[in-house]
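Structure first, sequence second, as always.
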């Protein structure tokens, strides 16, 4: 199955907030969680991910902080979903469900029950 990156790219905020709903995380780990959840069929580009983090932080949906890795290596910037972010996520999920219904309606073939002659 081929996944359209443009469609998923429009859902970047929803994807990030959904991952953060399970707990604080950092960019690389979030991207790996997405890749794992999709069996490697989708990974976010680093620029897309960090642009989304900036947008989500500016909107108050996430907070960031520097993590203490307790060892060698670079410090990581962690992200945490806020209460406001949880409300935004609920709305984004509702929007997604509505969009899914509309797309399903518009893309069903005649044999799938779409009787509207204007759509064929």
């Amino acid at each position: 199955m081929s996944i359209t990156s443009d469609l998923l790219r429009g859902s970047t905020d929803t994807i990030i907030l959904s991952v953060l709903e399970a707990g604080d995380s950092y960019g690389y780990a979030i991207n790996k969680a997405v890749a794992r959840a999709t069996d490697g069929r989708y990974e976010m580009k680093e620029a897309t991910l960090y642009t989304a983090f900036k947008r989500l932080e500016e909107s108050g949906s996430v907070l960031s902080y520097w993590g203490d890795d307790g060892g060698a290596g670079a410090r990581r910037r962690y992200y945490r979903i806020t209460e406001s972010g949880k409300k935004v996520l609920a709305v984004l999920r509702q929007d997604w469900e509505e969009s899914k219904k509309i797309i399903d309606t518009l893309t069903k073939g005649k044999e799938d029950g779409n009787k509207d002659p204007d759509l064929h």
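Margin note: The chain has one domain: 5-109.
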